[in-house]
């Protein structure tokens, strides 16, 4: 049973992705017998080429795929450099997981409430500074260059990269490296940049590629904040796929293939840039600069991070305000009246989506935690893990979701599988399993091996040891991994929409469905709920182990 | 209670193909073999090999016997070999009594009574419900030894068990451990850097390297 676990995980994560990708190849070349297309050819590609604005859509996806990750990486590196070994880092460690729990859609809606022409930011300075008595006629949201979309992506990718970096840093002995550099006369931030950053970067590479894949192919953030005329390629794919005219599916397949190529191209550009930057960086590192720029970097690193995370927090707060706001006229900073009306109107519609959200989240996460624990325990007992595991983990994160999920849906339709909760749950697992693994692997491996050896010398079998010793000792990281899985499942939009054939509704699909045409207040209620459920999960993951072990001093804190 | 001999027959431990140490000896019930030598010589690997969890970087040959019973093919939990680590390693999530109860084999009758007696024997009566984190260093060391004895081992391995104790405690605990092992007629192997440990054990000393 345990022996099968790694291979079960590898096939679960790779086969659906590969099957989904292969399912779009033939339709993209005009071969789809189900719709009476029997002669392969390039006509679909010609049609795609002739679609108005297709080049611009592709360019939008490519630029978002490169700029958002670049900006996120720079901010994270600057922040880590300027706060290494300070109290800031400790505060960040506590903040980062709950921030990561906020679904993309909720964060994007909150940001929209902040930066829209009638949003909170302009309210604060109007009419005093601007003189505006009514919202200006500016295209800030859904701007044609996709800037607000990229900002939304950066806000959500920063907590992810920070979490990855904070998990990787302990194994680098960062403090020791900085101390060494300081003893050679380098200021702390430059010491960090020259000695820690080059070692940290390789550990962030795969997560960065995942960020590139997400940013270049996002659908939910693009629907809320992205340009509309034309939208990004990923949004157009979904449009063609949902078109009642089934012939549009050929176009969607070719576009999905194009999307895959764009994402791969973005990653390739990144790798080429890596080589150039590495050379420049080495030259800078060896130039012996010990002091120059230290003060600027110090201020920049801290203030930029405070601004980004502050924006994220204010965005969430705005969801809250908006959801209870009565009358709220334009330049007023705050609503003139408060009301529960929006909740009362949403209430009756809530039951099914909330139930589905919880059911999908709990089932896919429980499955993922069981599988990941089996894989890690097998690794512990064997002393090593199959090398393919790390790649398998990243396959669903590196291949653009819209490409393979769309193919997978085509495939399932042809096999006449009923869309439903089970299919959607399996699709969620494709993303829940990798994140649960990424969250649990480090603490699981770090557990002192002597506990297990000790239990064995006391006569306990490996299974008894697992239940009586390891499970309790790992309760806190297991609870965190569970909360991570829940948050990932709740945030899934495409997986739910496509494999559920639109019939399985969740908090996320309902919230995003309102993006075009919903009132602000209703959107706020749904988005707030969407953010609240994963936050609640994290709160419980932090509180429960503490409560459980309140009478055991050594169990509170140090093992997590 | 009559003990059995712990026999190490032609044992050789290799790291990446290079031999680290060789040993061929027999330890009588109640006797302690002390193994000394610099770090990296393979002392701890010897204990890991005998206990049954040598890491896969090492390879080893030779046979381990308890009495007439060969242990080589048995997993760690079936070998009947107890181990005292540098740290007492009381399970932090269990109470003192639960720590002891975890070690008592299921076939034993009146398991709770055994636990109470074990606590009383080292002057810790009434400490059963305590959080192990609230015990002093000496109390933890005693509980760890009682836990080991309750698991009814047939031989004991000591991996520098006194090195982390304060000087005044060290002598007391050392004496307590060796006395207890002798009374229980258990053969033991002690790995240490400290010549005083070796002297206190009163047994043969093997110096490696």
Task: Summarize the helices and strands and which ones pair or pack.
The complex is a heterodimer of chains A (560) and B (209).
Chain A: H1 5-28, H2 43-50, H3 54-83, H4 87-101, H5 104-115, H6 120-125, H7 147-168, H8 174-183, H9 188-195, H10 197-217, H11 220-225, H12 233-242, H13 248-286, H14 294-323, H15 341-382, H16 388-398, H17 401-414, H18 421-446, H19 449-457, H20 462-473, H21 475-491, H22 494-499, H23 507-513, H24 520-548
Helix pairs in contact in A: 1-13, 1-15, 1-16, 1-17, 1-18, 2-13, 3-7, 3-9, 3-10, 3-13, 3-14, 4-7, 4-24, 5-7, 5-14, 5-24, 7-10, 8-9, 10-13, 12-13, 13-17, 14-24, 15-18, 15-21, 15-23, 15-24, 16-18, 18-21, 19-20, 21-24, 23-24
Chain B: E1 6-15, E2 18-27, E3 32-36, H1 43-51, E4 58-66, E5 69-70, E6 81-84, H2 96-103, H3 111-121, H4 137-150, E7 155-159, H5 167-183, E8 188-192, H6 195-201, E9 205-207
Q: Explain this structure to me?
A:
The complex is a heterodimer of chains A (560) and B (209). By secondary structure, chain A is mostly helical. Chain A is built from 24 helices and no strands. In chain A, helix 3 runs parallel beside helix 13. The radius of gyration of chain A is 25 Å and the shape is globular. By secondary structure, chain B is an alpha/beta fold. Chain B has a single domain, classed as 3-Layer(aba) Sandwich (Rossmann fold). Chain B has six helices and nine strands; from the N terminus they run βββαβββαααβαβαβ. In chain B, strands 6-7-8-3-9 form a five-stranded parallel beta sheet, with helices on both faces. A four-stranded antiparallel beta sheet of chain B has the order 2-1-4-5, covered by helices on one side. In chain B, helix 2 runs parallel beside helix 4, helix 3 packs across helix 4 and helix 4 runs parallel beside helix 5. Chain B is globular. The model of chain B has no long low-confidence stretch (mean pLDDT 91). At the A-B interface, helix 19 and helix 20 of A face strand 6 of B.
């Amino acid at each position: 049973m345990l022996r099968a676990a790694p291979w079960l995980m590898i096939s679960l994560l790779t086969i659906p992705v590969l099957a989904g990708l292969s399912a779009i190849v033939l339709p993209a070349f005009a071969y789809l017998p189900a719709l009476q297309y029997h002669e392969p050819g390039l006509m679909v590609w010609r049609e795609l080429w002739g679609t108005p604005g297709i080049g611009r859509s592709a360019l939008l996806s490519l630029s978002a795929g490169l700029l958002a990750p670049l900006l996120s990486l720079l901010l994270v590196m600057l922040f880590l450099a300027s706060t290494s070994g300070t109290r800031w880092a400790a505060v960040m460690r506590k903040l980062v997981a709950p921030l990561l729990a906020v679904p993309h859609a909720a964060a994007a809606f909150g940001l929209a409430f902040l930066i829209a022409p009638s949003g909170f930011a302009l309210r604060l300075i109007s009419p005093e500074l601007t003189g505006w008595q009514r919202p200006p006629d500016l295209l800030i949201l859904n701007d044609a260059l996709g800037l607000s979309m990229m900002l939304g992506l950066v806000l959500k990718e920063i907590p992810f990269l920070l979490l990855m970096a904070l998990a990787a840093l302990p194994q680098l002995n960062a403090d020791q490296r900085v101390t060494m550099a300081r003893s050679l006369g380098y200021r702390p931030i430059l010491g960090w940049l020259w000695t820690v950053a080059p070692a940290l970067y390789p550990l962030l590479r795969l997560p960065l590629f995942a960020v590139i894949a997400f940013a270049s192919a996002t659908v939910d953030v693009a629907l809320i904040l992205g340009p509309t005329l034309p939208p990004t390629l990923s949004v157009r794919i979904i449009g063609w796929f949902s078109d009642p005219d089934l012939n549009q599916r050929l176009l969607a397949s070719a576009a999905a293939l194009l999307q895959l190529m764009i994402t791969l191209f973005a990653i390739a550009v990144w790798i080429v840039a890596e080589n150039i930057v590495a050379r420049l960086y080495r030259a800078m590192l060896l130039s012996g600069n010990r002091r120059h720029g230290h003060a600027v970097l110090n201020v920049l690193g801290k203030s930029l991070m405070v601004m980004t995370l502050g924006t994220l927090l204010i965005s969430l707060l705005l969801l809250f305000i908006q959801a209870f706001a009565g009358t709220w006229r334009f330049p007023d900073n705050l609503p003139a009246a408060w009301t529960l009306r929006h909740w009362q109107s949403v209430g009756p519609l809530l039951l099914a989506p909330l139930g589905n959200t919880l059911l999908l989240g709990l089932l896919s996460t429980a499955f993922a935690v069981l599988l990941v624990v089996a894989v890690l325990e097998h690794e512990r007992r064997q002393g090593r893990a199959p090398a393919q595991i790390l790649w398998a983990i990243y396959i669903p994160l590196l291949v653009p979701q819209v490409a393979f999920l769309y193919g997978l849906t085509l495939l399932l339709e042809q096999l006449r599988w009923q869309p439903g909760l089970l299919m959607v749950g399996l699709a969620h697992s494709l993303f829940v399993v990798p994140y649960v693994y990424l969250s649990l692997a480090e603490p699981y491996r770090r557990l002192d091996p002597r506990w297990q050896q000790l239990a064995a010398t006391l006569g306990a079998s490996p299974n008894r040891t697992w239940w009586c010793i390891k499970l309790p000792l790992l309760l806190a990281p297991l609870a965190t991994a569970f909360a991570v899985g829940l948050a990932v499942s709740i945030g899934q939009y495409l997986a739910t929409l496509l494999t559920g054939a639109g019939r399985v509704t969740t908090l996320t699909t309902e919230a995003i469905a309102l993006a075009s045409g919903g009132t602000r207040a209703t959107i706020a209620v749904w988005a707030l709920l969407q953010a609240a459920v994963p936050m609640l999960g994290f709160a419980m993951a932090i509180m429960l182990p503490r409560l459980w072990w309140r009478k055991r001093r050594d169990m509170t804190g140090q093992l997590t | 209670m009559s003990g059995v001999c712990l026999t190490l027959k032609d044992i050789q431990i290799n790291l990446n193909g290079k031999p680290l140490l060789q040993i061929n000896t027999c330890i009588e019930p109640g006797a302690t073999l002390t193994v000394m030598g610099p770090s990296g010589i393979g002392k701890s690997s010897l204990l890991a090999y005998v206990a049954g969890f040598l890491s896969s970087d090492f390879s080893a040959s030779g046979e381990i016997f308890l009495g007439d019973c060969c242990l080589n093919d048995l997993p760690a939990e079936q070998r009947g070999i107890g181990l005292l680590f540098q740290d007492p390693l009381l399970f932090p999530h269990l109470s003192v009594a639960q720590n002891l109860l975890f070690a008592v084999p299921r076939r034993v009758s009146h398991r709770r009574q055994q636990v109470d007696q074990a606590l009383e024997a080292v002057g810790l009566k009434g400490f059963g419900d305590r959080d192990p984190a609230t015990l002093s260093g000496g109390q933890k060391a005693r509980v760890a030894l009682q836990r080991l004895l309750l698991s009814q081992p047939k031989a004991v391995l000591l991996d520098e068990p006194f090195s982390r104790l304060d000087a005044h405690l060290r002598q007391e605990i050392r004496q307590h451990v060796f006395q207890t092992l002798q009374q229980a007629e258990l053969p033991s192997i002690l790995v240490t850097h400290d010549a005083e440990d070796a002297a206190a054990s009163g047994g043969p000393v093997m110096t490696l390297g």
